[in-house]
């Protein structure tokens, strides 16, 4: 009997990989190990993954760069949840003969978490919840959404959904991205403006761009300082779209009212990071896509991808 294929399922933080999909069809051919904890050290990651022919990577939690891939000679297949994973070096994988298979993706989680964070920071929900739990009562005054201006940077699928939410709350929608046209903006119910105008006029600025060399650091301190002192910044896309040091500075200096963040330059966020301590930051641990339907699709498609790969080998 031939030795079983070794499969590593990475970064299953919630310990749900085996409950979200039926893996039984694979059991006769593969040996599956699920890892719930996250490693960051290169040597530790390589030591952990060295025995495995198949790696199931959850989004962008564990980077698989050239340095790591070159030191994993047994690796033949990476199944990556979602349509794209910027933390996998695709060119290196191809050169090393490692096949990449993506899973499907449900795109509702990101706009939903964006709107949840926007409403929570506008109405000071975390602070007032803490008041209630600690035996106190009202201490803050919320921000109305009706008539306010929301500035959307990036009016793709997610940005357009945010525009529709904003319209339902009778907000005024303005938008900007490098290739956005007046026609496309109008189709989404938004008005195209310059980046500078958007930052100056918006009461809420939310960014929805794909992280690339062109978009990385698209918001610097000079951009953030254009915002109103009463405005809020929301980022549920990717941390490096904004200069993190600059964002921290404008928050510490109270040049904007606050920020609601679901993404960061380094994830998981270091325990002593300032974002965990600033009073005008509402932060969540990159949970935009962490929903039951999305996880079920991720893991069900992962099983299918491994099955297809095994069948190709036989």
UniProtKB/TrEMBL annotation:
Residues 23-312 form the D-isomer specific 2-hydroxyacid dehydrogenase catalytic domain. Keywords: Amino-acid biosynthesis, NAD, Oxidoreductase. Coiled coil: none annotated. Transmembrane segments: none annotated. Residues 116-288 form the D-isomer specific 2-hydroxyacid dehydrogenase NAD-binding domain. It comes from the Bacteria. Belongs to the D-isomer specific 2-hydroxyacid dehydrogenase family. The keyword NAD applies. One of its GO terms (biological process) is amino acid biosynthetic process. It holds the Pfam family 2-Hacid_dh_C. It comes from Mucilaginibacter frigoritolerans. The keyword Oxidoreductase applies. CDD domains: PGDH_like_1 (cd12169). InterPro entries: D-2-hydroxyacid_DH, D-isomer_2_OHA_DH_cat_dom, D-isomer_DH_CS, D-isomer_DH_CS1, D-isomer_DH_NAD-bd, NAD(P)-bd_dom_sf. GO terms for molecular function: NAD binding; oxidoreductase activity, acting on the CH-OH group of donors, NAD or NADP as acceptor. This is Lactate dehydrogenase-like 2-hydroxyacid dehydrogenase.
């Amino acid at each position: 009997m031939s030795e079983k294929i070794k499969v590593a399922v990475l970064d299953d933080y919630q310990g749900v990989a085996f409950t979200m999909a039926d893996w039984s069809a694979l059991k006769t051919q593969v040996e599956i190990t699920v890892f719930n904890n996250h490693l960051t050290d290169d040597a530790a990651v390589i030591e952990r993954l060295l025995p495995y022919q198949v790696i199931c990577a959850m989004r962008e939690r564990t980077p698989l760069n050239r340095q790591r891939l070159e030191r994993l000679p047994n690796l033949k297949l990476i199944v990556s949840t979602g349509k794209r994973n910027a933390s996998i070096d695709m060119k290196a994988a191809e050169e090393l003969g490692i096949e990449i298979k993506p899973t499907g993706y449900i795109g509702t989680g990101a706009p939903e978490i964006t709107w949840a964070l926007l409403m929570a920071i506008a109405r000071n929900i975390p602070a007032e919840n803490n008041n209630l739990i600690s035996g106190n009562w009202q201490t803050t005054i919320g921000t109305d959404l009706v008539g306010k201006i929301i500035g959307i940077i990036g009016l793709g699928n997610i940005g357009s959904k945010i525009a529709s939410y904003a319209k339902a709350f009778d907000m005024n929608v303005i938008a900007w991205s490098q290739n956005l046209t007046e026609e496309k903006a109008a189709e989404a119910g938004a008005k195209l403006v310059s980046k500078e105008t958007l930052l100056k006029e918006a009461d809420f600025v939310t960014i929805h761009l794909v992280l690339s060399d062109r978009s990385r650091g698209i918001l610097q301190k000079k951009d953030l300082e254009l915002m109103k002192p009463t405005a809020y910044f929301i980022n549920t896309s990717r941390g490096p779209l904004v200069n993190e040091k600059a964002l921290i500075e404008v928050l510490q200096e109270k040049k904007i009212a606050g920020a609601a963040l679901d993404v960061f330059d380094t994830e998981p966020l270091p325990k002593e990071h300032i974002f965990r301590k600033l009073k005008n930051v509402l932060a969540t641990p990159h949970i935009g896509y962490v929903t039951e339907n999305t996880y079920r699709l991720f893991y069900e498609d992962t099983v299918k991808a491994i099955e297809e790969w095994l069948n190709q080998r036989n």
